[in-house]
Each structure stands twice: as structure tokens, then as C-alpha cells.
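Q: What residues go here?
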């Protein structure tokens, strides 16, 4: 009986919090050159900070498709996440900006945000919770 109780307690205590699967569908890829760069952040401190994303993905674009999907498994369901996407069309590894009208000169997308205003999107506006499996659709916005 003691062994059964111990087994049950251990079984209950070992539930995996890392059970969520996130599928990201990226659409509206208009440019056939460059690289799609996607960052998944899990804290406000890492949000939009180069090299601080929880997970990063790079995909070279080509003429065969205007959409791609990325699947991330075993994410902590109790955490919040935010996605930032940049289509680096000229390969200089940075988001180019234009002066007039002010804003990005290359394609971009963020979770929970449509078009940008005059400032960078805030973590609070872009974060979302993950409960089980989730699908997020990002449509790239080009200037």
C-alpha cells in the first residue's frame, strides 16, 4: 500500500508543464530575396533585444512559396510569449528604417499587432498565453 501511495504522489508531481505546441503560420511573403527571421521571447526584458530571444529561426526565402510554417514543441504552458518577425531583404542583419514616412523599410510582423505606430511595439501589447496547442498567423507587412 505504501508503494502505491508513493507511486501516485510521484506521478502527480511529475506532470510536464512543457506540453504546449505552437504553430506559427507566416504568410504574405512578397519578396523572394533575403531571410525571414523570427524570434520567440518569453520575457519583457528579452523583447526586441538582439540575441535574447528564447528561440530564433531563420528561413531563406525563395520563389516556391509565399508562406511558411514553423512548429515549436514542448513550450511551458504557464509562460507568456511574444513573436517578432523581420524579413531582412538585403542581408545586412538589421531592420532598415526609412525617414519619410518614418518606419520600417523591410517587412515585419508581431504577435497581436497589426501595423506599427510611431514606436516599437510594447511587450504588453504583443504577449500571449499558451494553453495547450496554439496556432498564430503572422502576415508580413511591407512598407
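A:
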Amino acid at each position: 500500500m505504501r508503494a502505491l501511495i508513493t507511486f501516485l504522489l510521484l506521478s502527480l508531481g511529475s506532470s510536464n508543464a512543457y506540453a504546449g505546441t505552437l504553430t506559427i503560420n507566416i504568410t504574405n511573403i512578397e519578396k523572394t530575396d533575403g531571410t525571414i527571421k523570427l524570434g520567440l521571447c518569453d520575457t519583457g526584458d528579452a523583447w526586441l533585444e538582439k540575441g535574447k530571444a528564447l528561440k530564433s529561426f531563420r528561413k531563406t526565402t525563395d520563389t516556391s512559396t509565399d508562406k511558411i510554417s514553423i512548429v515549436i514543441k514542448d513550450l511551458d504552458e504557464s509562460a507568456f510569449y511574444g513573436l517578432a518577425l523581420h524579413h531582412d531583404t538585403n542581408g545586412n542583419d538589421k531592420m532598415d528604417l526609412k525617414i519619410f514616412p518614418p518606419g520600417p523599410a523591410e517587412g515585419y510582423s508581431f504577435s497581436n499587432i497589426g501595423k506599427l505606430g510611431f514606436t516599437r511595439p510594447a511587450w504588453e501589447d504583443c504577449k500571449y498565453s499558451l494553453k495547450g496547442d496554439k496556432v498564430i498567423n503572422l502576415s508580413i507587412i511591407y512598407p
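A: Context that may help when evaluating the design: The chain has a mean pLDDT of 86. Residues 2-13 form the longest helix (12 residues).
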